[in-house]
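Note to self: the last two entries modelled the partners one at a time, which told us nothing about the interface. This time every component goes in together.
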Amino acid sequence: MPTPSFYLVVLGVSFVAGVIGSLLGLGGGIIIVPVLTLMLGVDIHHAIGASVISVIATSSGAAITFLRDKITNLRLGMFLNLATTIGALSGAFLMSYVQPHLLYIIFGLLLGYSGIAMYQKRNMELPEGVQEHPLASRFRLSGSYYDKSLGRQVHYKVAGVVAGWFVMLVAGILSGLLGIGSGAFKVLGMDMFMKLPMKVSTATSNFMIGVTASASAGVYYARGDIDPVIAAPVALGVLLGAVAGTRLLGNMRSTTLRKLFIPILLFIAAQMTLKGWSA
Amino acid sequence: MVGITVDSRSDPLSRNAEWWTAQSLRVGVTISGVLVALGFLLILWVPEISILGFLDPRDIINAGLLTLIGASIFRVAAASLAFLVEGDRAHAAIGAAVFLILVLSLLLGRVE
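The predicted structure of the combined assembly is written out below.
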């Protein structure tokens, strides 16, 4: 039976993971898994199970507000979720034919390169000169939201629909193959290829990661990897953190969000590359 | 320059789908949060308690976590239904396809 201080640490760390996850469209696994395993000595399987719960809690807690405020683009999220779910299913079947360590290295380097590319446009508040893709027009994917930090309604167009869909397919395949949430790839795909405002990219990624993680959570449950004693404080902390994060995002500039995202992206890139290298 | 499109706040189709999806999540997350918090508090203070003779705090937490997972999957179905009701067949079909793939993934037991 864990001690009260164990629960306090888990609640605190999960709160932070929820804030960061809801702001940046990530699952929070990069924070929760190392803390649970390295600091608190939790079994890796239970830590990953708790991490899956944290992805769902972040996504669900944040989506309520982001959907209401139209920061999440629901049509686009559904459209791209088709790619990620097909990819995730395909990736799971490809698992026995692919060398995972090579993928870790390739995609780790790719993420690192994307982080550098993103750094070059760190001061860009909103995408400029975007030409709407014909498919975006056909499927009514473009949209608008009220930006509290700018004090005005922001209308945006969606570009690069085919490229973005392909990136989501690859992100889904990676999820299936490597067991990662791939929220960073989703945000990058929407930011770099589809030219969406950063807030829309992170909020829509947030919506999407929860959908895919829900399917895998059933599997983790069946395996007994989700220990309720550990998952409970994680779920509660993350839910509270996600709600706090949604309040922060509304008042935050996209440039600030991008500057927060870049170091975390580079950290994930380094982590993936090292994992592939050491394997 | 930011492109000008139709304001989605004035688009009742979009508002309804988003509203229904958010509401389905809100209900699920609230029920889940209450159950997980209740189970967690019981584990902290009275871990050996048994409710109705067979429910222990871990079962209550499990019920809460399963509600959270279910609500997360159901948001896709809710959005798809909302699109269908509003006559947006393309997005209703996309949502239905995503939902079916999710269910298939659960059945096959091998996603992510």
